[in-house]
Write a structure and sequence with these properties.
Blueprint: H1 2-22, H2 25-31, H3 33-51, H4 69-72, H5 79-86, H6 90-108, H7 110-121, H8 125-136, H9 143-153, H10 160-167, H11 179-206, H12 211-219, H13 224-249, H14 256-262, H15 268-271, H16 274-284, H17 290-319
Helix pairs in contact: 5-17, 6-11, 7-11, 8-11, 11-13, 13-17, 16-17
């Protein structure tokens, strides 16, 4: 009897699928036009702002000028790619960009995980919610305001940081102009701004952990730290791996706005990265070099894509978790 019911259910499901597939696309759109209307908005945005601009990549392979337009400009081949690789700026830009991103990744990637694990184990909900609110609130502060706070706090004459250093007989020091401190200020101010908001993703992943696992571990005498290590941490590893893959793919893309705002003539030797260099030669220079700037941007994007594919391959093979 059970087998017969299962066969009938399978046959009914098959007939329903056949009936749905026989319905035309136009009829399905008319029946569910509200859903398709909601889907159309993000698709239009993606097409206009993400895919249509790719047409401009052709500029990297041409001696582009505004008068002739993209198709009217003569082809230049890989002239501008070779120019960038052979320029004296190449290794300095690569070094500054990679070092800054790797430093940021090593310093800030574990912090949201630790914060999420700690908040998840707090028993007093009012304390957990208050701590979460305080930590993710800086995410909503704009980059311009954050850099403005850094400038005010590190001011050699009136900044709080220099006043504290003065208590120990140090200073005044131009912290924003010190090339040795630029990376530290950039990374740790970014950690303060993004740590709490990034922890929300891991807190959401921790909600999928069955409470029975913790109850069984408590019965077996496992401490809170052991439960975090053997139960909570494995639950967020897949999410952490995916976010790590995405971060590796952006290794040549550093926060353009913040780096540009923090730059000055004193720290430019370590603060000049690929994104700011592209902006300066492509838009901010007296004679904009559109083709050269586009070639550098395309070079960065291709390297990022290659690193993303490699990171995804390694993650799928060793961590059993990947984007695709």
């Amino acid at each position: 009897m059970t087998t017969l019911n299962a066969e009938r259910a399978a046959a009914t499901h098959k007939r329903e699928r056949a009936a749905k597939s026989s319905v035309g696309l136009g009829l399905r759109i008319r029946r569910n036009w509200q859903l398709y209307a909601m889907l159309a908005v993000p698709l239009i945005w993606l097409a206009v702002f993400a895919y249509w601009p790719m047409y401009g990549v052709i500029i990297a392979f041409k001696d582009y000028n505004v008068v002739s337009g993209i198709w009217g400009s003569p082809w230049a081949g890989f002239k501008y790619f070779e120019r960038f690789v052979e320029s004296y700026q190449f290794w300095r830009l690569i070094r500054n960009t990679v070092f800054l991103h790797v430093y940021e990744l090593l310093a800030t990637f574990p912090l949201p995980i630790v914060l999420a694990l700690c908040l998840n184990t707090v028993r007093r909900k009012w304390f957990s919610r208050s701590a979460q609110l305080i930590t993710y609130a800086p995410h909503f502060i704009s980059t311009v305001v954050v850099v403005g706070l850094l400038v005010v706090l590190t001011n050699p004459n009136t900044g709080v940081a220099n006043q504290l250093l003065g208590l120990f007989g140090i200073g005044p020091v131009d912290l924003m102009g010190d090339s040795g401190l630029f990376r530290h200020l950039y990374v740790w101010s970014g950690a303060w701004q993004t740590m709490g908001f990034s922890a929300i993703i891991y807190l959401a992943a921790l909600t999928s952990v069955p409470p029975e696992l913790h109850e069984a571990a408590i019965v077996d005498g496992a401490s809170r730290l052991r439960r975090m290590w053997h139960i909570d941490l494995p639950a967020i590893v897949p999410v952490a791996v995916i976010l790590l893959i995405l971060d590796i793919g952006r290794i040549l893309s550093v926060g353009f706005e913040k780096v540009l705002l923090m730059q000055n003539n004193l720290n430019l030797d370590v603060a000049e990265v690929i994104d700011t260099y592209v902006y300066k030669i492509g838009l901010a220079s007296a004679v904009p070099q559109f083709s050269y700037a586009t070639a550098i941007g395309l070079f960065r994007s291709v390297i990022g894509l290659v690193l993303l594919v490699l990171a995804n391959t390694f993650a799928r093979r060793f961590a059993k978790s990947s984007l695709w």
